[in-house]
Amino acid sequence: MFARTTARLFTGAFKALFSDFDAFLRIVWAWYALVAVLGVLGTLLAANSFVVIFVTSGVWVCSSASIAVAWHRNLLLGERPGPVNLSFGRREIAYLGKTLLVSLIGLIPAIVVITIAGLFVTGWPGFIMAAGVMAFFILPSLMRLFLILPATALDEPLGIGDAYYRSEGLGLPMAMAAIGTGLCITAVDMLLSFVANTIGGGAVFAAIAVLILSLALQIALTALQIGILSGGYYILRERDMAPPAAPPAD
User: Fold this and answer.
1) How big is the chain by its Cα radius of gyration, in Å?
2) Cβ neighbours of residue 35 under 8 Å, at least 6 residues apart?
3) Alpha-helix runs per DSSP H in 121-170
């Protein structure tokens, strides 16, 4: 069951993205363009760069919620995005607030694990121990709590306690699927970096193309991680479906 659910979440996230990649591009392009423009302004207005950086960071945070909400609704409701997605309102604010809440809940055990690992095991063994504990114990629990996010995107009521209780058996598959997609994107990104370093400065256009592809991979990773949460919430809703009624006896 664990392997099948993990594979379903992992492959489902990729299928959802690449079967409707144009929809995700419509969701993200305007936000990324806005952040890019603000970044250029920050470079040109170096004297007021702190203000520009602050505004750019705020826009980036808002964009993450807007993109996530729109992609959740596309995957779970089939809601088609318009040509420009710069929406940010009550739904996105709630999404940001709940993201912060769950992140703060997970911060406490993460600090404890890192502190203990630093006190008793130093160097790489300590890092590996802390990473293992967080990957197999803390992250699965957090993934179960993060299921309140797709529910928020769909305007469906789901509290933290209810999400954790109803998602038994989903935490580790979602965590492993998230780690797996992250490793895949990281591996491809490292390969692109190697290609860029090999090419060197003699092929400027090729290097620029590699940088653009690297950015596309980061955008794809965002879509995949949101897709995994959407998949987990879809499975959670499947569990709530009543079994088909038995045919009446003759």
Assistant:
1) 21
2) 56, 59, 60, 63
3) 123-133, 139-145, 148-153, 160-166
**Could you count the other beta carbons within 10 Å of the beta carbon of residue 44?**
11
Integer Cα distance of 126 and 115 in angstroms: 10
Q: Structure tokens of 147?
A: 């299921």
Provide the pLDDT for residue 72: 94
164: burial class by Cβ within 10 Å (0-12, 13-18, 19+)? middle
pLDDT digits (tens, 9 = 90+) for 154-170: 999 888 989 998 888 88
Q: What are phi and psi of 175, to 5 degrees?
A: -65, -45
Q: Which residues of the chain carry a pLDDT beneath 50?
A: 245-246, 249-250
User: What pLDDT does residue 21 have?
Assistant: 86
d(CA 122, CA 103): 26
